[in-house]
Amino acid sequence: ILNVEQSPQSLHVQEGDSTNFTCSFPSSNFYALHWYRWETAKSPEALFVMTLNGDEKKKGRISATLNTKEGYSYLYIKGSQPEDSATYLCAFNSGANNLFFGTGTRLTVIP
Amino acid sequence: NAGVTQTPKFRVLKTGQSMTLLCAQDMNHEYMYWYRQDPGMGLRLIHYSVGEGTTAKGEVPDGYNVSRLKKQNFLLGLESAAPSQTSVYFCASSRLGQGSSGYTFGSGTRLTVV
């Protein structure tokens, strides 16, 4: 069992604000780090799969960075919109066929 | 394109009853997974399959069995349900293994064991 920690657990931001949250994972035996967006009453949807130290990925207003040496990844949302309200999950893979998921950061964007 | 379809969406079982959850994917993915989600915990892997006819144990396999007779289907069975198996169950599939590609998830099955 591997420990994947996400912070904060939840946050509320005003529409238009930019925000970021953190995923911490073991720095040894790193293979891949995933980010998922999970809207209420829907299923998790893959945002990014990151494999290289220093990786930066971007999808519209959402971007992510990866530091495998220190074991963390940041997810950034620029100019938050109400439709960004969701739980954001990260998941760590050490090379086996198992993703270890964090408990998520629940984002609420207030119009 | 349906993606990953889970049936049923909801079920209530009595302790000791059995049931099978069905997962079907139409993306020709080799890898399929069953996860459970419990309050305050991250998704935990129950069993997975790396291809038709194969299955393997995940993190929390006890009390569950699986089968992958056809590439597109992955079945999760509970032989004798226990209240501790009350959870939301998610099936997922991926094109590549070892976390190299993103997972596509089904919409979940909410199971209550009374």
What attributes characterize this protein structure?
heterodimer, A: about 110 residues, mainly beta, six-stranded mixed sheet, five-stranded antiparallel sheet, 11 strands, about 0% helix, globular, B: about 110 residues, seven-stranded mixed sheet
> Which range does the strand content of chain A fall in?
over 45%
SSE sequence of chain B, one letter per element: EEEEEEEEEEE
Q: Which pair has the most extensive contact?
A: A-B, 27 and 28 residues
Largest sheet of chain A: 6 strands, mixed
Structural class of chain A: mainly beta
Major pleated sheet of chain B = 7 strands, mixed
Briefly note the structural class of the backbone of chain B: mainly beta
Number of strands of chain B: 11
Number of helices of chain A: 0
Helix content of chain B: under 10%
- State the separation between the terminal residues of chain A, measured CA to CA: 39 Å
Strand content of chain B: over 45%
Number of strands of chain A: 11
Between the first and last Cα atoms of chain B, what is the distance in angstroms? Answer: 36 Å
Backbone CA Rg of chain A: 13 Å
Question: Which overall shape of chain A is indicated by the principal axes computed on the Cα atoms?
Answer: globular
- Low-confidence region ranges of chain A: none
Rounded Rg of chain B: 13 Å
**Oligomeric nature of the chains:** heterodimer
What does this structure look like?
The complex is a heterodimer of chains A (111) and B (114). Chain A has 111 residues and is mainly beta. Chain A is 0% helix and 53% strand. Chain A is built from no helices and eleven strands. Chain A starts with a strand and ends with a strand. The mean pLDDT of chain A is 95. With 114 residues, chain B is mainly β. Chain B has no helices and eleven strands. In chain B, the strands form two sheets. In chain B, strands 2, 4, 5, 6, 9, 10 and 11 form a seven-stranded mixed sheet that branches. Chain B has a four-stranded antiparallel sheet with strand order 1-3-8-7, with no helix packed on it. In chain B, a hairpin with a 5-residue loop joins strand 7 and strand 8. Chain B starts with a strand and ends with a strand. The A-B interface holds A 1, 4, 31-32, 34, 36, 42-46, 48-49, 51, 89, 91, 93, 95-104 and B 4, 31, 33, 35, 40-45, 48, 50, 56, 58-59, 90, 97-108.
